[in-house]
From TrEMBL, chain A:
GO molecular function ontology, one term from the record: transmembrane transporter activity
TM stretches of this protein: 12-32, 38-59, 71-90, 96-114, 121-141, 169-192, 213-236, 242-261, 268-290, 296-312
Entry's family note: Belongs to the binding-protein-dependent transport system permease family. AraH/RbsC subfamily.
Gene Ontology CC, one term: plasma membrane
Record protein name field: Monosaccharide ABC transporter membrane protein (CUT2 family)
Keywords: Cell membrane, Membrane, Transmembrane, Transmembrane helix
The keyword Cytoplasm belongs to this UniProt entry's keyword annotation: no
Location of this chain's protein in the cell: Cell inner membrane
The keyword Lyase belongs to this UniProt entry's keyword annotation: no
UniProtKB/TrEMBL annotation, chain B:
Cellular component, GO annotation: plasma membrane
Membrane topology reported for the UniProt record: Multi-pass membrane protein
Gene Ontology MF terms: transmembrane transporter activity
Transmembrane segments: 16-34, 55-81, 93-114, 121-139, 159-180, 216-237, 292-311
Keyword Protein transport: no
Main location: membrane
PANTHER family per the UniProt record, alphabetical: ABC TRANSPORTER PERMEASE PROTEIN YPHD-RELATED-RELATED (PTHR32196)
InterPro entries recorded: ABC_transp_permease
Family: Belongs to the binding-protein-dependent transport system permease family. AraH/RbsC subfamily.
The UniProt record lists the keyword Transmembrane helix: yes
Pfam families given in the database record: BPD_transp_2 (PF02653)
Name by which UniProt lists this protein: Monosaccharide ABC transporter membrane protein (CUT2 family)
Alphabetical UniProt keywords: Cell membrane, Membrane, Transmembrane, Transmembrane helix
Amino acid sequence: MSKIQLQTLVQRVLRIPPSYLVFISLFLILWLTRPQMLNLNILGVFLRQVAPLGILVLGQLLVMRVKSIDLSGGGVILLVNYYISSGMFPGASLPAFIFLAVATGFIVGMFNGWMIAKRRVSAVIVTLAVSIILIGMVQFLSSGSPPGNVPTFLRDIYNTRTGVMPNPVIFWAFLTLIMSLFLSLSVYGRFVTSVGESAEAAHFSGVPVERTVIVAHTMAGVIAGIAGLVQTASIAVGSVRIGLDLPILAVAATILGGVAFGRGEGGVWGPFFGVLSFSLLFVVLTIYGVGEPGKLVVQGVIILLAAVFYGIRSKS
Amino acid sequence: MRKYIDILTRRNTRQGAWGFPLLVFLGICVWLSFNTARFATIENAENLIAQAMPLIIVAIGQMLVVLVGGLDLSVGAVISFTTAILSLDAPTIVLLPVVFVLAALVGLMNGLVVTRCNVHPIIATLAMQYMLLGATRLIRPVSGGEIPQLVLDSVSGEFFGIPFPVFWGIVVVLIAWKLLYRSRYGLHLFAIGGGMASGQTDAAHNFGIAVRRNIVLAYVGSACFATIAGIFLAGRITSGDPNVGLLFELDSITAVALGGTQLSGGVGSLQGTVIGALVLALMSNGMNLVNLSPFVQTVVKGGILLIVVGLQSRKKMGL
């Protein structure tokens, strides 16, 4: 092979999001060490656990593609959980809860977007501050102790299956498909790509940069609200602690999925496999008896390695 | 009138707007001493200084990184990590140097990843935060252990009626003052940050400043100041605690921003940062005195952070 051919080959390989490689290697490890784990029933249960994370990632990848970040998901999820479990709205039906969750996410996301795009405040700081304000509010309202129970119909929906796959997983895959089609087919998807490549160039080409960022954050907020619904259904009780580490995990999965931070590239399926990798990773770590601290370390290492991988690639 | 506003907000100066937070600080002091019986007592003042000291120390370190346009989210984890190491069963003469060496290594790694591997500071330090939190919980899953007697003595005594925490503050501020205003390094930090903020990232490089090395040193400095705060806190709580550093990264950023330091880099001052940290500590102290729920205090702090950072202007959008 000539040198040029080799170079393009190397570039091709480097363009593959790391999540695919991580997923394949984790899958192989599981297959070699615990083949009995790899049946669809068991995998379905594992996948169902990461469905809220997977949904949250859809919003995260959108904002990260316009060079922003959203860490407020934890607060939104907690607030949605509080609506449902505190008995604040007695006798409310499912559509009412969906409306509440979406409306909350919409308002929070819109505020984030406005602060980031119009006031030009650092996205990390805005969304972190919003998150701790929401968490503080929920903890104050519930006096620091877990609120009541979740209505049974949510739990029932969560437990349904189509074939062997649990419905939450199918819902997650369906949302991912919609997001993928939306970003590749709509004009807004083109706007997102161009703003991510270079906000300045996009501005001079007539792309409404600020509006694109605001819409991205608003959508991320709505998606966080939906993730909050799924998360609440999954644990089936009120809590003042759930979902707090989800935004960081979502950032990690998105980076792993090839959405390069601060550059506008990346797809939707890379992060999807990033979430799948995390799901398998937790299984593998549990099998090998790695505790909670070890998992934290592994998460940190993965974020770092994925970021370094992209950093070095973009420099060369 | 315009002139006085300009003097107060100190537009276009390298020091940043620290006049306004000073007024806020004095205002809160006056309000609290008139409205609560316990505020204007020697006891409360000692309490306040001891409460504010860790935040002042961390915020000074954080400012070094902010001046070059970065952010260090790992300071809270460094604090927890330090208390966990100090609570190990080993001679004091070994523990203290080890703590500093580890902190320097953490800072070095943060800095190298940011400058050499082209990773965004937030991501690099966030990853570091996770690794350190994990390591801390491996060493000390729940709070416990014994802190060396030397550390305990250094924070709780007094000298001619002046409590030891005051001396800690004086020493740390003097070191930082020397570093920022009486050394070539400080000048370089402002130069690098100024270039970053105006979008000409290679301006400082073109003047012959070793940009990368200075940025790495800023991260090392930040981690070292955080570890000093960790030693101080270990002495105060008398045990190793994996959660003691929680939210310190946010509080320190709030303090830095409150003190007029621009998060885009290049503008800021030592006195501003100290005042910013004092204002935050004073607000916690005041909210405790009027018996506000700790959860509401979190909300108030988050609100302050949003307002302070929202008032800063910058060109760049996003992160």
